[in-house]
């Protein structure tokens, strides 16, 4: 009598993902990243007295670089939500590298960037905490 043996083989398929690598502080008056703030660490304190402007923008660098859209949420001393559909992905926004400024009031903030590969495929949310002092 012969016995048949079945062997199952599992094949892992990589699920595409998107994530935020870092955030930078932008001077919207000059539309350029502020030197020394190219890659900001979590829980940074932004001292308005030592910055070249109080008119600020925060730019998220993604991997891969382009997303379908990015949901952006600011909570804390002030709150605001919006969706970015075009690169670069920033808070409070931009128009083809003409960065919009935001005047943060002193206090603690949480800024969340949530990128999407397509309409439904969410990537990793990036939560960035910072404090603004006068």
Ranges where pLDDT stays below 50 over 5 or more residues in a row are: none
Alpha-beta classification: mainly beta
Mean pLDDT: 92
Order of helices and strands: EEEEEEEEEEEE
Helix fraction, binned, reads: under 10%
- Strand % is over 45%
Largest sheet data: 5 strands, antiparallel
In total, the number of strands is 12
Please tally the helical runs, counting DSSP H or I stretches of 4 or more residues.
0
Gross geometry: globular
Q: Radius of gyration, Cα only, in angstroms?
A: 20 Å
The rounded distance between the terminal residues' Cα atoms is 86 Å
Give an account of the 3D structure:
The chain is mainly beta and 134 residues long. It starts with 18 loop residues before the first strand and ends with a strand.
Layout: helices, strands, pairs:
Layout: E1 19-27, E2 32-33, E3 44-47, E4 55-63, E5 69-76, E6 80-84, E7 89-91, E8 94-95, E9 98-99, E10 102-103, E11 107-116, E12 126-133
Parallel strand pairs: 3-12
Antiparallel strand pairs: 1-2, 1-4, 4-7, 4-10, 5-6, 5-11, 8-9, 11-12
């Amino acid at each position: 009598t012969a016995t048949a043996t079945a062997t199952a083989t599992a094949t892992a398929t990589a699920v595409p993902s998107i994530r935020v690598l870092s955030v930078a502080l932008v001077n919207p008056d000059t539309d350029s990243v502020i030197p020394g703030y190219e890659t900001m660490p979590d829980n940074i304190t932004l001292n308005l007295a030592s910055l070249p402007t109080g008119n600020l923008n925060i730019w998220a660098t993604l991997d891969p670089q382009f997303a379908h859209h990015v949901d952006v949420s600011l909570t804390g001393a002030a709150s605001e939500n919006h969706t970015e559909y075009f690169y670069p992905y920033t808070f409070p926004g931009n128009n083809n590298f003409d960065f919009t400024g935001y005047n943060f009031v002193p206090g603690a903030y949480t800024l969340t960037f949530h990128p999407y590969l397509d309409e439904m495929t969410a990537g990793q949310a990036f939560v960035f905490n910072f404090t603004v002092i006068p």
